[in-house]
Design brief:
The protein is an alpha+beta fold and 232 residues long. It has 6 helices and 10 strands; from the N terminus they run βββαβαββαααβαβββ.
């Protein structure tokens, strides 16, 4: 197995890509006794696993060490050295363990751990995507509101509600909500020159349960009705 990270390079989108190996063997409904099994990519089975774990545990949990349903076997096995090679280049092995069935072993993206450590974990990225969508929903109705302290307060309250829900679901770390996130939208990031341009900026700092580092989201609104949520 002579795979290199360069072969899997995906540029800036690497933090949104996850790869699993090997292909799976599943029942072949048209193969009869001659060809009872067929090989297929694991993407559908892994997507089903992620959806199931979302309902059971939430998107902030890593989809790993869980059984894949409706698959008979992996198309090949890897020894410990080969599994290490897969992990080192950003792939997530699938393995069959006695008594545990077929399992996903790992939940990492193709992001490089040296240059993009915050994009390394699948659960982390999926949590951020969900929070960004939720923040967009609560912020979008405010884009044509008059700029000023009242708008800033409404925006902070709306975003705080979203983050409190994530905190109570266990997606964010901290003994208290103020240790898990902070929402800043005041004169410190909206000085007079920014207000004169009809723009509003809001900064969000939050700490996912895994990994433990704080990350920052930035919201930018304009009087023309534009809304951007940027993950730093």
């Amino acid at each position: 197995m002579q795979l290199r990270r360069q072969q899997l390079s995906a540029g800036n989108s690497a933090r949104s890509i996850v790869v699993y190996q090997p292909w799976l063997e599943v029942k072949n409904p048209l193969g009869g006794v001659i060809e009872p099994l067929r090989r297929i990519p694991p993407v559908g089975h892994v997507a089903g696993l992620i959806s199931r774990l979302d309902r059971e545990r939430g998107a902030h949990h890593t989809p790993a060490n869980a059984e894949l349903y409706d698959a008979v076997d992996a198309s090949r096995t890897y020894d410990a050295l080969e599994q290490g090679d897969l992990v080192n280049i950003g792939l997530n092995p699938l393995r069959c363990r006695q008594g545990s069935g077929l399992q996903v072993w790992g939940g990492r993206t193709l992001a490089d751990k040296q240059t993009d450590p915050e994009g390394l974990y699948l659960a982390h990225r999926r949590l951020i995507h969900r929070l960004v969508r939720a923040i967009r929903r609560v912020a979008a109705p405010l884009v044509f509101s008059s700029n000023g302290p009242q708008l800033w307060l409404v925006l902070v309250r709306a975003i705080t509600t979203v983050l409190l829900q994530a905190y109570r679901a266990g997606a964010l770390k901290g003994a208290r909500p103020e240790q898990a996130f902070r929402v800043i939208c005041d004169e410190s990031n909206n000085p007079p020159n920014i207000q004169d341009l009809g723009q509003v900026y809001c900064s969000i700092q939050l700490a996912p349960a895994v990994p433990m580092e704080f990350i920052t989201l930035r919201i930018a609104m304009s009087s023309e009705g534009r809304l951007e949520v940027i993950s730093a």
